[in-house]
Amino acid sequence: MPNKSSKNTVMPDDGQKQDLAPRNEPVQSRSIRRSKQIIDVTGELLERVGLDDLNTIIIAKEVGISIGSLYHYFPNKYAILYAMGSRWLESIDAVFMEVLRWPLEELALSELIDKILAIHLKTYKKQKAILTLVQAMFSVKELRELDAQHDDLVIRQMSEVFKRIGLQRHIRERERIARLYLEVTHSTFLVVVNQNENRAKRTLNDLKRMIESLLAHHLSNSQER
After folding, report:
1. I need a labelling partner for 195 at 20 to 30 A (CA). Which of 27, 96, 117, 206 fits?
2. How far apart are the first and last CA of the chain?
3. Which residues lie within the region annotated Disordered (predicted)?
4. How confident is the model at residue 29 (pLDDT cuts 50, 70, 90)?
5. Whole-angstrom Cα distance, residue 216 to residue 119?
């Protein structure tokens, strides 16, 4: 999961270190609430103004605090986006912890896919400005490590899920299949969150068919070995 220590620094174009860690880790209830408010408001602004026009001045104004007070919590907008991305990854990690508590070995493949797609889609729908955030994690160098952490998390955990449902392959092969699962589901979820209900339902049904066909094929080959 993301490292929130003061070691989170990057090198911007001018060669100076860009600090991504919060100024102070909030411990009091009021500070925790304020930090969360800043992150939540940034998510709302990200949806309205986009990444390029987002800055700490409009964030502070929207929160209702001075720019100096904002800097007491976060040194720059990338630190806020980093915290937002980290929080999203934590929600994904929590989902996997729940999934791994399921009786995976007893679930029919179709039921498992229904359940796992539904629970993961919720994390995409819940996160504000998810498409812009994901694009920022991929394209903004200050946030790129979050993109790698996201991929590693999903691949590692899905590889374990595949093992438990009977896909008896070398871990590298399970990770290869897990990466394919990641790429297909991740891109599809980002589309679904912006579709109307009927269109989203059809898209998810197509996604389920693709994943079920993929896993049925590999599970069948595992049983034949």
Report:
1. 96
2. 36
3. 1-31
4. confident
5. 21
